[in-house]
Design brief:
OB fold (Dihydrolipoamide Acetyltransferase, E2P), 3 domains, 54% strand, flat, six-stranded antiparallel beta sheet, SH3 type barrels, 1 helix, mainly beta, 2% helix
Length: 185
């Protein structure tokens, strides 16, 4: 058993007889009151999120998790389909579980998937991915005195800021944590 102070983002806990994943944690110490831990958790069974407050010394049961390397295969109507590169076993995930990772998923993209009680609960991307530019407006001649950026659209549909010299068809390295341009690939 761990205390509420030990909670971290990504952990799985047993809360009210249900397994839940911790999405966000904040330790608070208001004025003259006792310290507490404010956490946002998502139930694995129902998929609903809840804002929960724990006393900082409250005991919390941590549930063991397993991580596995997977690859994104394709999108099936509304679900994202991932496959294990060794066993070719597939896992379907809803857009709620995939979250913002959908902006960087292309065919055969490697991801790290976290499982709790044989159910996928989260998808983690590598720190950077290489994506192809599909749309990029022309830069204005003489507009290069400063570090001027323009909006470009990538193959997944996400738009980012990139330097003026980027053209359609170029491959760019993108930081998946900040959604920012890093360099040409």
């Amino acid at each position: 058993m761990a205390t509420a102070n030990d909670l971290r983002k990504g952990m799985a806990i047993n809360y009210n007889g249900d397994v839940a994943v911790v999405l966000d944690v904040q330790h608070r110490t208001p004025g003259n009151l006792r310290a507490f831990v404010q956490a946002i958790i998502r139930s694995i069974r129902t998929g609903k999120s809840a804002d929960v407050r724990f006393a900082s010394t409250e005991k919390v049961e941590v549930v063991p998790m397993m991580t596995k390397k997977m690859e994104f295969s394709y999108m099936d109507q509304s679900d994202f389909v991932f496959s294990d590169p060794e066993t070719f076993e597939t896992v379907n995930l809803t857009p709620e579980i995939v979250g913002d990772a959908k902006n960087f998923l292309i065919e055969n993209a490697p991801v790290t998937m976290t499982f709790v009680e044989d159910r996928a609960v989260s998808v983690e991307l590598p720190p950077s991915v290489v994506l192809t530019v599909t749309e990029a407006p022309e830069g204005i001649k003489g507009d290069s005195a400063n570090n001027v950026m323009k909006t470009v659209t990538l193959e997944t549909g996400i738009t980012i800021q990139a330097p003026l010299f980027i053209k359609p068809g170029e491959k760019l390295k993108i930081d998946t944590r900040t959604s920012k341009y890093m360099e040409r690939a």
